[in-house]
Specification:
It contains 13 helices and 18 strands. About 30% of the residues lie in helices and about 20% in strands. Helix 2 crosses helix 3 and helix 4 packs parallel to helix 5. The protein starts with a strand and ends with a helix. The protein binds zinc ion. Zinc ion (ZN) binds next to loops.
Length: about 450
């Protein structure tokens, strides 16, 4: 039995243009045998199945290469690392993976999570235990005492439940890579940004060039992909020179970084949604909204976009990802905002943004040659929208416009189940955000009505 899908408009992911009155045809194994004008499609037989999207815009399933399945919509780093057991995080991560697929995202990369959470979610979906997106999984970030994700004081260290795995030497890093590969990760995440700055303000990379080279070499030797968190120039440069497959952020890329990326073939996922949401959503009373922090994020965002435009001009492949998993980037909510920001802030056309989120993203993903484009031989991973994202990308953020999500030809239907966010994350023990000295209390007296109202 074959399945025929009538498509009002078909965006294959290969070209900027759509095909009007098109058809997809696929076999029982979910592989496409035809994608093109309905006129040219093979003849449909009586027992073949017909799916009617003749009034819809059909396109490849969207891909987000930067969604942390285990973060749980976290408000604090401690919440990501400490307050819930890995087992609960895995269950929660599965629930949230389903929120993503319900938003039209048929594949995700989860680049850096504690334990073996993302790969367990991937395996459970692949085994058919749950419906969910295709997942490309990493383990904990490799980090140093000078790196991102080694948040806690040295006398605490990096607990086993953290997203960071502290390594003290090249040897330890190599052993950790081999261990993660044995456990079944698809990619190795390296925390390349450091925490110290040079007098001129430049961020110092967490690893040296030599260490970076050794880690990427071993990752590739094991047949896996290497990905890096690198906002700073030095972290980006070392990553690019080492041949890191994917660099997240790259906001301070200069000409040298861009030349190194060109040479080694590194791709970039700027992840604009996370800082943009921080800037626009954070309230003044929140820690992230304290004086200077938003201004710094705005400045970094502006510089980042200017530098990223140069990288785009140089022909570096741009991938879409959002850093979903924080309180400002909840699962299934803002993934497609990245496409709008590609258009507004990086100068992509709408069609180019759509291709970035499908065809280009697939180039990085495991089994990428079989997804991301609707053409003969690839999987029938597709979504149908009531309206054209090429007219308005905002449609992709509106789940009420989504008319179907299919993975390998099978429709995925996820019930929109409400949940109690306070029982899912936000277990941090923080009690106050102010300091109640006599002077502060006197200052606040005029505002005490808030308390009285509560009585
Ligand atoms: Zn991230």
């Amino acid at each position: 039995m074959k399945t025929f899908v009538r498509c009002g408009q078909l965006f294959t992911g290969q070209d900027d243009e759509t095909i009007k009155n098109a058809a997809l045809v696929y076999d029982a194994d979910g592989r496409l045998t035809y994608a093109g004008p309905e006129k040219g499609a093979p003849k449909r037989r009586d027992h073949d199945r017909l799916i009617d999207h003749s009034r819809h815009f059909v396109m490849p399933g969207l891909i987000d290469v930067h969604t942390h399945l285990a973060y749980g919509n976290a408000k604090t780093e401690e919440d990501i690392d400490l307050y819930s057991p890995l087992e609960f995080r895995a269950l929660r991560g599965m629930f949230f993976a389903q929120k993503c697929v319900a938003a039209g995202y048929t594949a995700l990369c989860s680049p850096g999570d504690a334990g073996q959470i993302s790969l367990s979610i991937r395996n459970a979906i692949n085994a058919g235990l749950f419906d969910g997106p295709r997942v490309m999984a990493a383990g904990p970030y490799l980090t140093t005492h000078q790196g991102l994700t080694d948040w806690y004081p040295t006398w605490i260290g990096a607990p086993e439940t953290s997203i960071g795995k502290l390594v003290h030497s090249i040897d330890e890093a190599i052993q950790e890579i081999r261990k993660q590969v044995k456990n079944g990760v698809d990619c190795i995440k390296i925390a390349m940004d450091g925490i110290q700055r040079r007098p001129d303000g430049e961020l110092i990379a967490a690893f040296t060039q030599e260490e970076t080279d050794a880690m990427v070499r071993e990752t590739h030797r094991q047949g896996k992909k290497a990905v890096a968190h690198a906002v700073g120039r030095e972290a980006t440069l070392y990553s690019a020179r080492a041949g890191m497959d994917l660099i997240f952020h790259g906001f301070f890329s200069d000409d040298e970084c861009i030349a190194a990326m060109k040479k080694s073939g590194s791709m970039l996922c700027p992840t604009l949604t996370q800082p943009k949401n921080v800037i626009e959503f954070t309230q003044p009373f929140e820690p992230a909204g304290q004086k200077g922090r938003i201004e710094a994020t705005v400045a970094r965002y502006k510089t980042g976009c200017a530098n990223l435009k140069k990288a785009k001009k140089a022909g570096i492949p741009f991938l879409t990802g959002t850093d979903t998993g924080f309180a400002v980037t909840p699962y299934g909510e803002w993934h497609a905002r990245e496409l709008e920001l590609f258009v507004d802030d990086l100068g992509f056309s709408k069609a180019a943004a759509l291709r970035a989120a499908t065809q280009t993203n697939a180039r990085f993903m495991t089994q990428g040659e079989a997804i991301g484009v609707l053409e003969e031989g690839r999987f029938a991973d597709f979504v149908a929208w009531d309206g054209s994202p090429l007219a308005d990308l905002g449609i992709l953020l509106d789940k009420s416009r989504l008319r179907g999500v299919y993975i390998a030809g099978r429709e995925i239907v996820i019930a929109d189940r409400p949940y109690d966010p306070r029982k899912v994350t936000d277990f941090s023990l923080s009690n106050w955000t102010d300091l109640y000295t006599q002077a502060r209390v006197a200052e606040l007296r005029g505002q005490r009505r808030r308390l009285e109202a509560a009585e």
